[in-house]
Amino acid sequence: MPVKKVQVGQLWKKDDSGDTFLITKIYSEALTTFAVLRKTGSEDQPPIRIRISRSGATADLPGFTFTQESDEF
Length: 73
Known about the structure:
This protein is an all-beta fold. It has one domain (11-66). Helices cover 0% and strands 48% of the residues. It contains no helices and 7 strands. A 5-stranded antiparallel beta sheet has the order 4-3-2-1-7, with no helix packed on it. A two-stranded antiparallel sheet has the order 5-6. The relative contact order is 0.33.
């Protein structure tokens, strides 16, 4: 589900497992922006890095669904 902006603190659900992840960091590398996600409730597991895909005025994390009611922050 695309949102206007991917931000630190947002919760995203992984499509295949249903696990919820928290965005802990966003950074750029060359011409690509990445989000670092940590599984909620499992802080001992290593974080994962996902490329943020952009399409016009929206952004999305492939394989994840935005879980919050509104993207107006």
